[in-house]
Design brief:
about 110 residues, 4 helices
Length: about 110
């Protein structure tokens, strides 16, 4: 029970952190790796979905859809938050992260 609370709290905290970081005015950074921000998107949404899947194990489809929806919503809101911009590749990276979390969670659930 306590472990499930940990996962659920992490999921909510992660969603809020993603919202803040997504809507905060962008600071230009030196890009060492091409498309490095896409890796960040995938990692953030992988963590969000993984915490959600662990916290709500009976609601896999809802967690996956909510995680993808959160990514779409954040990208849409960035359109109204200059200098942020809407980017379909960011949404794709978010979705890839969610799918990776699903695969990781499935693997870990089967190895128990």
């Amino acid at each position: 029970m306590l472990l499930r609370l940990f996962w659920r709290t992490g999921c909510v905290f992660g969603a809020l952190l993603i919202a803040v970081l997504s809507l905060w005015p962008r600071v230009d950074t030196l890009s060492v790796v091409p498309h490095q921000d896409k890796y960040g998107h995938a990692l953030a949404y992988c963590c969000l979905a993984f915490f959600g899947l662990r916290g709500f194990p009976q609601h896999t489809v809802a967690v996956l859809l909510a995680s993808v929806f959160w990514g779409v919503l954040m990208e849409c809101l960035q359109h109204f938050q200059p200098p942020r911009t809407f980017d379909l590749l960011d949404m794709l990276a978010n979705t890839v992260g969610v799918l990776f979390a699903w695969g990781l969670n499935s693997y870990l659930s089967k190895t128990r």
